[in-house]
Amino acid sequence: MRVLHFRHFLKTLLLSTFGVYVAIMLTVFSLFIYRPEPVPDTFAPVIELKGGESMTLPVNDNFVDPGYDSYDILGEYEVKVEGEVDASKVGDYAIKYVAIDDSGNTTEKSRVVHVIQPAGIVYLTFDDGPSEHTARLLNVLKKYGVKATFFVTGFGDDAMIKREFDEGHTVALHTNTHNYSYVYSSVDNYFADLNAVSNRIKSITGQESKLLRFPGGSSNLVSRRYDGRTRIMSKLVNEVTKRGYTYFDWNVDSNDAGGAKTSDEVFNNVTSRFVQGGESVVLQHDVKGFSVDAVERIIQYGTQHNFLFKALDSTSYTAHHGVNN
Ligand SMILES: [Zn+2]
Hints:
Elements lengths: L1 H14 L1 H17 L12 E4 L4 E5 L9 E4 L5 E6 L8 E11 L4 E11 L3 E8 L6 H10 L5 E5 L4 H9 L3 E6 L4 H4 L3 H19 L5 E2 L19 H11 L3 E2 L4 E2 L9 H9 L7 E7 L3 H4 L2 H10 L2 E3 L16
Parallel strand pairs: 2-6, 7-8, 7-13, 7-14, 8-9, 10-11, 12-13
Antiparallel strand pairs: 1-3, 4-5, 5-6
This protein binds zinc ion (ZN).
């Protein structure tokens, strides 16, 4: 009997004016009055410049903006690029990249483009890496938008070789073992060693390199100790060329594997030997911390004196030494 009474009561309530009133009020409350707190968007969009904060362009070359990566966590945003580069006129040009989201959060990055009449071309090259110093070297090169060349070995982290390649540097062949007594004891040993480092690069970058530098350079005499008087360097320079490789020596020695023991000495040796109106292939080693530490100042000096930094390719100046063995 009680249950029946309760059902009867509910029926009456819902059909009553009061019940209809309650239902309407609940709907109004949920639709118009109850609002969850909106999450405030205080997060500004992120912009990462590709190619660094500064770049150098020879006058009358074609300027292509290296662009940027960007993202935002909440809402919509847009990026405006302001400023123009007149590549036909020597000068410094600023480009601004401004990202604004729909809450007004703003991020701004800028890049300076130096349009120069080059005083010469400088190829920074680094042998024997990668090493624990390579990451900070790559950071400096990135900061200045400078591309360099790495003649790598079988040592060090694969990830560093990947970074060198991904960041637009030339990854080239030096030697797998850097063991003179092995690589220079026969032509077969030399190529077995070269193929090993070549396979390493190919497995990391997906590309085969046909650019190389001999351990000790093509003019080295150390090979005489191990080749049984067969004049192995004379054979190797012919044989690598026949097999489609281009070999590079250098004409600016930082002497970081010789007498130079400090960053100042490396800086002085390199910058004092820059070839005015010509090409400089600079020898450094990214296994030497003090040599890596000189690179930022070398780039700053070169930029201030209108030198253009480039990575080596198969058409570049090879700076060949005379073969002595
Ligand atoms: Zn070496």
